[in-house]
Write a structure and sequence with these properties.
Chain lengths: 279, 200
């Protein structure tokens, strides 16, 4: 009996080690009907936010910049890893948010824009796309590959100068010398990482731990997991030590907003090159 | 004596420079022998017409330094001057890209190629070609060259070279990384699709 139990344990741990990440339905499976059309619009908004939801976007980014492969890729905060985890209490807002409200947060902060209202065609399309993509994922679970995989704290404190070298060697070819991104006609082919066209100081990605986790798993594009943990932390420190659009919650100034909304994982309110970040 | 010798040695270079100043259109007949009429690309030889000038210059410099290995191009690149490299690169980049022709290639193969070019294959960690090479594969200067309208053989050969390590002058090893993940079928599909510039 004991042996059988042990064998069972062994078998289940092998299974756990080989646990695959969820494979969302293929695009060909989008139903060919009115619902399918809305799902397709959701995908279009997600991959080309600048065109399909321009009025809600205040910078040059598209949803797909942080959620690769049209929101499908594991460890790149896929839609199927988020949809099934809402409604949820969020420390960020100190209340329970629905998935729609979470998407509104993306527009306010990551897209530095205006939240699409509940019931707007854009919101309905995005939620429909996320719902469809999550077909088969149990509600209320955190599937493997959801979010960005948390990186252990580095051996050395993240360092701007080392990060600058990592950036020059690995990132600059696409994101430019000054993090300005690169254009393809009138759109960004490679997203701006700081400056006016990038996400604002309220976006999750400005947190160094979040950026390090995203970078480690996904960057350079097609070469995820090629940087060391230390390099990922250092380059995140470098990128997130540059200025970007203001935190829209900072009504009472940077110092108050730093205390209220920002913790030790970011450089908001720090002085870099004689300028206070976030002002 | 020494000075005369030095001057004599410089003469061909000076003559070349003087020619470069004069010639609006350089003599490209030698290039056309392999790269086809109007250097539009042929068989194993890439299209040079309409390619970015800085990309072409870098390739010529890399042939010269040996950073990009190629038996035909290395001696040629070594025999021309920096100003020739600039001149040819700029001239080629200003030539029109030939319009893609309808193809008789298998529709399923083209669809597979299109899917790779537009969406990639992320289950194997392969980003879309057009994510870096521009929304229509037209290139994003200076580092990401135009890839549409290149001969299928040329595209397949380059991917094979990155895979094997024979070519390694790509920025950040990006093409090595992508090539390692492409299957033989995918290489064939994407080469045929790109050659045709997306016209079915």
């Amino acid at each position: 009996m004991k042996i059988a139990f042990l064998l069972l344990l062994a078998a289940s741990s092998v299974f756990a080690a080989e646990e695959k990440t969820f494979t969302p339905p293929s695009e060909r499976e989008i139903p060919n009907n009115d619902f399918g059309n809305v799902i397709k619009l959701g995908k279009s908004i997600f991959t080309d936010t600048q065109h399909y939801a321009k009025k809600f976007a205040g910078n040059g980014l598209n949803c797909v910049n942080c959620h690769l492969d049209s929101g499908r890729k594991a460890n790149s905060s896929p839609l199927w890893g988020a949809y099934v985890r809402y409604p949820a209490y969020r420390a960020k807002t100190r209340q329970v948010n629905t998935f729609e409200e979470r998407l509104q947060g993306c527009f306010m902060f990551s897209l530095n824009g205006t939240p699409p209202p509940l019931g707007s065609p854009e919101m309905t399309a995005l939620v429909s796309y996320a719902y469809w993509m999550s077909t088969g994922v149990p509600v209320g679970t955190k599937p493997k590959g959801a979010g960005y995989p948390e990186l252990p704290k580095p051996a050395l404190a993240p360092d701007f100068s080392r990060g600058k070298e990592v950036y020059a060697a690995n990132c600059q070819v696409c994101h430019g010398t000054n993090g300005e991104g690169k254009m393809d006609g009138d759109k960004f082919a490679f997203p701006p990482l700081w400056g006016n066209e990038s996400f604002n100081w309220g976006a999750g990605m400005h947190r160094i731990n979040t950026a390090a986790a995203f970078i480690k798993a996904n960057m350079p594009l097609s070469k995820g997991d090629s940087l060391s943990d230390q390099e990922a932390w250092d380059v995140a420190q470098f990128v997130m030590s540059h200025d970007r659009p203001i935190d829209p919650r900072a009504k009472g100034g940077v110092a108050a907003a730093k205390k209220e909304y920002h913790d030790e994982n970011c450089r908001y309110g720090d002085t870099v090159d004689g300028k206070i970040l976030g002002e | 004596m020494k000075i005369i010798f030095l001057l004599l040695g410089l003469m061909p270079v000076l003559a070349q420079a003087a020619n470069a100043e004069k010639m609006a259109k350089p003599d490209i007949s030698v290039c056309e022998n392999c790269h086809g009429k109007d250097v539009a690309g042929k068989d194993d030889f890439p299209r040079l017409a309409g390619m970015g000038a800085s990309y072409l210059s870098k390739q010529l410099q890399d042939f010269r330094s040996g950073k990009r290995a190629n038996q035909i191009m290395q001696p040629i690149a070594k025999s021309i001057s920096d100003s020739d490299i600039r001149k040819f690169s700029e001239y080629f980049s200003g030539l029109p890209v030939p319009a893609p022709q309808p193809t008789t290639a298998d529709a399923a193969l083209l669809n597979q190629g299109e899917s790779l070019a537009v969406n990639g294959d992320w289950t194997h960690g392969i980003p879309a070609c057009f994510q870096c090479h521009g929304a229509k594969g037209q290139g994003i200067a200076p580092d990401f060259p135009s890839i549409v309208g290149q001969p299928a053989n040329y595209v397949s050969n380059q991917i094979a070279n990155w895979k094997s390590g024979t070519r390694s002058n790509d920025p950040v090893g990006l093409m090595k990384s992508v090539s390692d993940r492409l299957s033989d079928d995918q290489i064939k599909a994407v080469s045929v699709y790109l050659t045709n510039g997306g016209v079915k």
